[in-house]
Amino acid sequence: MTAGQITEIQPAQQAPNQAGVAPFGPKPRRISAGRIGIYAFLIVAALFFLIPVYIMIVTSLKGMPEIRLGHLFNLPGEPTFQPWADAWLHACTGRDCFGLSPGFYNSVKITLPSVAISIICASINGYALTFWPYKGANLLFGLLVFGAFVPYQVVIYPLIIGLSSVGLFASLPGIIIVHTIFGMPILTLLFRNFYAAIPVELFKAARVDGAGFWRIFFYIMLPMSVPITVVAVILQVTGIWNDFLFGIVFAGRSNWPMTVQLNNIVNTTTGVREYNVNMAATILTAAVPLLIYFISGRWFVRGIAAGAVKG
Amino acid sequence: MQKSWRHRFHLPAVIGTIPMILVAVGVFVIGIGFSVLWSFTSSKLFPTYDFVGLAQYRRLWADNRWLVSVNNIWFFGLMSITCNMVFGYLLAVFMDQRIRQEDLFRSIFLYPFAMSLIVTGLVWQWVLDPNLGLQAALRNWGWSSFSFAPLVDADTALYALVFAGIWQGSGVAMAILLAGLRGVDEEIWKAARVDGIPTWRTHLSIVAPMMKGAFATAFVLQCVSVVRVYDLVIAMTGGGPGIATSMPAVYVIQLITVRQNVGQGMAAATMMLLPVLVVLAFGGILTWRRNRQREAGA
Amino acid sequence: TDLEVIHWWTSKGESAAVSQFAKAFDNDGHGDKWVDSAIALGETARSTVMQRVLGGDPPGAAQFNPGRQYEELISGGKLLDLTDIATAGKWDEVIRPKAIGSACLVDGHWWCVPVNIHSNYWAWYSKPVFEKAGVPEPKSLADFIAAAPKIKEAGLIPFAIGGDGNGWQIQLLFQDMVTEALGVAKRDEMYTKKSAEIAGGPEMKGVFTQLRALKQFTDNGYANRNWNDTTNLVITGKAGLQVMGDWARGEFAAAGMTGVKDFGCMIGLNEAKPVVSTDGDIIVFFKQGNADVEAAQKRLAALLISPEVQVAFNNAKGSMPVRGDVDMSTADPCMQKSLKAVEDPSNVVTATNWFITENTTQQINELVGQFFADDSVTADDATAKFATIIGNSD
Amino acid sequence: MAQNGTSVSIQDLSLSFGVVTVLQTLNLDVAEGEFIVLLGPSGCGKSTLLNCIAGLLDVSEGSIFIKGKNVTWEEPKDRGIGMVFQSYALYPQMTVEKNLSFGLRVAGTPKDEIAKRIARAAEILQIEPLLQRKPAALSGGQRQRVAIGRALVRDVDVFLFDEPLSNLDAKLRAELRVEIKLLHRRLQNTMIYVTHDQIEAMTLADRIAVMKGGVIQQLDAPQTIYNRPVNRFVAGFLGSPAMNFIDGQTEAGASAAFKTGNVSIPLDRYAFDTAGNSSGPCVFGIRPEHVAFGEAANAMPFAIDAAVEIVEPMGSDTLVWTKLGGQNFSFRVEAEKTLRNGEPIRIGFDPARASLFDSQSGNRM
Amino acid sequence: MAQNGTSVSIQDLSLSFGVVTVLQTLNLDVAEGEFIVLLGPSGCGKSTLLNCIAGLLDVSEGSIFIKGKNVTWEEPKDRGIGMVFQSYALYPQMTVEKNLSFGLRVAGTPKDEIAKRIARAAEILQIEPLLQRKPAALSGGQRQRVAIGRALVRDVDVFLFDEPLSNLDAKLRAELRVEIKLLHRRLQNTMIYVTHDQIEAMTLADRIAVMKGGVIQQLDAPQTIYNRPVNRFVAGFLGSPAMNFIDGQTEAGASAAFKTGNVSIPLDRYAFDTAGNSSGPCVFGIRPEHVAFGEAANAMPFAIDAAVEIVEPMGSDTLVWTKLGGQNFSFRVEAEKTLRNGEPIRIGFDPARASLFDSQSGNRM
Ligand SMILES: Nc1ncnc2c1ncn2[C@@H]1O[C@H](COP(=O)(O)OP(=O)(O)OP(=O)(O)O)[C@@H](O)[C@H]1O
Ligand SMILES: Nc1ncnc2c1ncn2[C@@H]1O[C@H](COP(=O)(O)OP(=O)(O)OP(=O)(O)O)[C@@H](O)[C@H]1O
Ligand SMILES: [Mg+2]
Ligand SMILES: [Mg+2]
């Protein structure tokens, strides 16, 4: 009836000795060999990446005599959770033997505000640099990027003096400021790149609507920044949670983060080392960033694509 | 015309970026300025202001350990950046093959990034320890002639550091490069296939050169961490055996805290800033010229 | 009054010892409280202290090693002068040997409190290993080097050492060997006079040669081994001998081993020439600009050196008390050896950081570390370099 | 298979991505030297079909013959096809010359042979002066020629184009359309060309295959498709301004008629496709340019009064909107005619030129 | 300034980015309720001009008056303008309702007033059912309406549109064009509309401002611009298929003529713009639809023989390419005409409908 149907008939008429030609089955080989290679590579690579966790977990479940035998990769002969309990509750750092738990709360106390404040600062920076560049703003940005390369230790001395002169040295606000300072370069870069990819029209539309600097930021830009904020949160949480150097110097005795306690448990100049407790303590300390990672890893890659690649 | 100034320095924008101004000027300019200043003094335990000219720099460059550190950072930097890029790119390429369980693999490759370098160093130190780690384990399993103890030997310890650096950093390189790879126009792949170009060749000659942005980002991140490499060295080798794996950052800290020679430490820190400054200035000039050219061309 | 104390006694045994201080202070009847700030690793703890001082927020007290590390703190006027309570407590009389007191007595003022004496001058060996190898127990380092090949033949590691933490175990070994080779007097002369001649002399070359020999008798796992794993090699009979300070005894004790029977201790690397060092720990107090706090600081200072606290602390720590008028009859045979040796001032070795700056110390450390790690550096080269470092030291 | 003269033959081709079937048992025969255009809305599977022919996608079922050879599982490079992409997919870091020669160099073609082929392609496409430039320094049209050149140097039998003009502006598009047409005339290769622009399809194609939902709706010469669309979709997809569609009913009987509102259009001149005619809801379609106006309207078999609603001058002519049976209705008048909004007019047309579609199936009646 | 009835007045406006001057001492007066279209190729400064009017760019020199008030340094929100962007720039995280009300909420309008205005705008634009949706869940046309609504609720005097249709497909574009036209008729606001699509410009504008390189080339009613372009650029930019341009010479004298090759076209019917006529190189332009063919050609003041080169059927009509004086020449015939390549034909036209441009300056003669 229709032309479309006619074409369907034609090939059938033309099709020659169909019996003679072998049926054109799928051509499977290319698929399997290559695929196996890909998975083999990925699995080997994954094993390489997993070795340390495996060892940490296995070791943390062994007793010290078993560890000294050197069977690093063996599963624990007599699994024991004592090291974990020790690490969390009993391990001594100095005369306090409360394990890691007190430091955990300090770390939370430091990390939460630091992450929030540094991200807020950086996002405002990125926003202002992209949409409201005033004269000299880009020079400031250049200085900031330069700051990303400066070894921390170079500015520690001036920072100590600066903070103590305003009375914030060795205090919770002090450590938060320090983390904000050192997070700012990379985060600002990320946010700037992210905002640069947002159509300017959106900004213009909001200005025509009468919104000003802050309103555009809080009502339009911030709600759109979820992907890059996720990246920033991950970077900052891992960075700040894992930080030891700033924590010990700037946080003050009563705010020492978990890493200081980890350091006390793991390292000792003349004391005895208990690897199983060390490993358990290490895993416990790394747990928070790892958890965040596994929960939001998918977003991380997406956010990086949004904010980093155009660099 | 009268409002022109206000438009140029939009007040809320300036207010909003006060933290940035403070940090950029207050910390990175003034702070670094002080550090440079102290490098010309004889400061020991605490910063002082008795100037001694270039004496600290002369002592610095006469110090064997500093020379070794400088060599090491170049070697470590080149090796680890290259390896991370290559390995990260390989991982990205394989991850890009529409594999199953991509999420799982990605998490595995990325998680080391969440681990602190201290932990990375400790664990690898342990794995590579000939009496407790890999070597002992394989010997216990019957391969008695197996010998692998890179941290013991001054010649190989640096490789071990590079190795741990790869473990920690290649996942991030992978993530960035994967994002770049996914940004490459799919039609380029098709065109190359129609042209009959083998896959590896397509990667090498066509796709990789197209991913400049992603490579640049990954490169910058790696450079930052190379310049700052401290924790990893401290945790894995402590700069040893001997001074074989000493690095400038480690050197600076040692001078400041252990040797109590702040002046020379700041001199070393200033030297560390130089290459960064040169590279940044170079990059700045390049972009400036490119902008000029574009403006002129438009 | 609350008093924050920064120290690096973080391990289980150490914290038990530090608790003795804290308990005594908390119960001194003045409502004082010991606020404990433990930071692992001496370097880290010390730099934290320095940064705190710089930031204008120094702790009430801090642990240091005797030496010149706090010289600048004194000259900078950061430390609390303890002379009045020292006079009251007659520190200059009760503290022995004199050397340990002089660490705190600068220009007639007391600036710190010594709390214990650690001797670095010990070698610990496994009796079963020497039995198995069929060689006699060593009386000196030379004996040991002679016996080492036999131990190696027996499939055991003759010499146990570890290279962690910047190679401090190797530094310790080196200093022990220097003292053993030069003798206390000549060694002190070398360091005080900055004598390049002694430092480049044949004894020093002998030291480097011996060091190279010892390296051959160790295993290749030494690189990052920490001291208690090293000790464990001796305890488990895998290795013959370790050179380590007296805190290693705690490890043997923890493994249920007793001196004389299961393991041997060799004082000063040569039983014939017993020496002890006056290494140990001191506590400094920082000026707080607050009379109440300073009173508490002085109370603590007096308390730290009081006989009861000294006994309690040093028994827990395994070190020697800084005063001779306490009862140490419960100490084990090795400790007895050192208690005896310390009575004779000529047996007392002063710590190197008393003579030379930290900077020079580090240069020596680097030289020794490099020499030990790198077999291509000859003993001659190393001796020459050592002479240069000593000659140029400030 | 492949009787002489058949260049590309697709037999019972199916392709699904997971659960989504994109192509359904599709058949298509392209004659030697023919210019076939695949036309259809976005997402209808045009690119997918082209990629199957090129070997860039593995088919789920069916087979593909090129020059009589079963190439269903051949590598793209072995199929004798060349492909030009929408984004051109030029290798950005290579010069034009490198772009052209890369495939040949990889295949190990001798140097002088490569040079010869590039020279020929450059001459045909008139890109000799551009050979040393990078793609970024080329205009859209020049890029497009380089992309064609890349296929040209490989001396292929079949050219595949995937919307090669859709990234360009209207002016350039018109020019390059002519160029491609001339190129085809010169080379006489088989060409399969994907587009969703009906003007391109109309002007370039020997035959157009209108696709929708992975199925070829109609495969015919452009004028046939334009004048006798097989269903409402095809009718609506082709033509700009678009065909007018009026919903209503057919009334069967000796003098069949189409009724909507109070308008009745006699259908005695209409050539029904379906055997016989029946009453029922249907859609009446007539193109704006087939509507006469004013005097001319009265000469038409059907004429009616109406009022002007909107006048859209388009330069060369003017589109006038009015209502027919209460439904929007447009017709085309010359640019010179000036009409005011609300002006009463008379319009008419010949039902023989109309198309009638079943309301349900949308098929031509 | 600002005589009564002038809605937007732009005086001596200049704007440069760094060293690049984008707008040059530009003057434009828009009457109350007028629909002005800014038409020009990409990069000619249309958006820049619109952004200046909106206050989104700071001008380098000159001033802008809206409703007689100098707004050159006012904030965008205080200018009484509303703007619709090409990408619509809807706030992605807000519902349609929130999108519409954002500006009002910023201004602190009372709640019930906001509700009233939204209701009215939603009714006008027929987007009531969409109010609770997010932009991502809207079709292109719906988004466009919301974007217009955003300006509508703010009750502005002047609507600014920056290529609001260029992201849409042809079909939707045609529909929304009609909608915008109806909206303008209903609201009677001043509208300034940027586009590079000449069909849009022709159908929508009361007056078109054709721009090039930051300068307004011609500002006139669409038909005037179409029929009497002031220069070659304007002539070529408008019209699809494009105007034919033939290079040649004028010959002055009593019976002026245009000569190219061996063809001579009499110009006695041509109305010269320039005082008198002179000999010299010039370009002769005639639109394809003004060329007659076959019998009709002979009725024209000028006729000539030619041969068909390419036939481009475009559905509604067919474009035929031939040569005139050795140069490409196209003309339009009805779709029904079938012509073969190479077929000899006769074509003719009325030189009164042609345009003559100076070769150097490109200006109309
Ligand atoms: N890799 C894929 N996985 C799943 N679905 C796909 C894939 N590629 C294409 N599709 C789907 O197949 C359908 C046809 O896609 P195709 O690209 O062939 O359309 P098209 O006709 O070329 O459209 P356009 O004109 O937009 O290019 C679309 O619905 C698309 O979503
Ligand atoms: N911020 C800027 N800095 C420098 N040059 C600019 C800037 N914005 C626009 N231009 C330049 O100004 C010129 C005019 O740009 P404009 O956006 O007004 O063009 P347009 O006519 O709107 O083009 P299109 O049709 O592509 O939107 C262009 O050449 C452009 O490169
Ligand atoms: Mg497509
Ligand atoms: Mg524009």
From TrEMBL, chain A:
Biased composition (Polar residues): 1-17
Membrane topology (UniProt): Multi-pass membrane protein
Positions of transmembrane segments: 36-57, 110-132, 139-160, 166-191, 212-235, 277-295
InterPro entries the UniProt entry points to: MetI-like, MetI-like_sf
Keyword DNA-binding listed: no
Name of the protein in its database record: Carbohydrate ABC transporter permease
Domain ABC transmembrane type-1 span(s) in chain numbering: 104-296
Family statement: Belongs to the binding-protein-dependent transport system permease family.
Keywords assigned: Membrane, Transmembrane, Transmembrane helix, Transport
Pfam families: BPD_transp_1
Location within or outside the cell: Cell membrane
SUPFAM superfamilies, alphabetized: MetI-like
Organism: Mesorhizobium newzealandense
UniProt region (Disordered), positions on chain: 1-20
UniProtKB/TrEMBL annotation, chain B:
Keyword annotations from UniProtKB, A to Z: Cell membrane, Membrane, Transmembrane, Transmembrane helix, Transport
Protein's cellular compartments: Cell membrane
Primary location: membrane
Keyword ATP-binding: no
InterPro entries in alphabetical order: ABC_transporter_permease, MetI-like, MetI-like_sf
Top-level taxon: Bacteria
Topology class, membrane: Multi-pass membrane protein
Domain ABC transmembrane type-1: 70-283
Transmembrane parts of this sequence: 12-40, 73-96, 108-127, 157-181, 233-253, 265-288
PANTHER family: ABC TRANSPORTER PERMEASE PROTEIN
Assigned protein family: Belongs to the binding-protein-dependent transport system permease family.
Descriptive protein name: Carbohydrate ABC transporter permease
Organism: Mesorhizobium newzealandense
From TrEMBL, chains D, E:
Keywords: ATP-binding, Nucleotide-binding, Transport
Superkingdom of origin: Bacteria
Database matches in Pfam families: ABC_tran, OB_MalK
Name of this protein: ABC transporter ATP-binding protein
Stored CDD domains: ABC_MalK_N
Lineage, highest ranks first: Bacteria, Pseudomonadati, Pseudomonadota, Alphaproteobacteria, Hyphomicrobiales
GO MF annotation terms: ATP binding
Transmembrane segments: none
PROSITE patterns on file: ABC_TRANSPORTER_1, ABC_TRANSPORTER_2
Annotated InterPro entries: AAA+_ATPase (IPR003593), ABC_transporter-like_ATP-bd (IPR003439), ABC_transporter-like_CS (IPR017871), ABC_transpr_MalK-like (IPR015855), ABC_transpr_MalK/UgpC-like (IPR047641), Mo/tungstate-bd_C_term_dom (IPR008995), NA-bd_OB-fold (IPR012340), OB_MalK-like (IPR040582)
Family as reported in the entry's similarity comment: Belongs to the ABC transporter superfamily.
Organism: Mesorhizobium newzealandense
Span of domain ABC transporter: 8-238
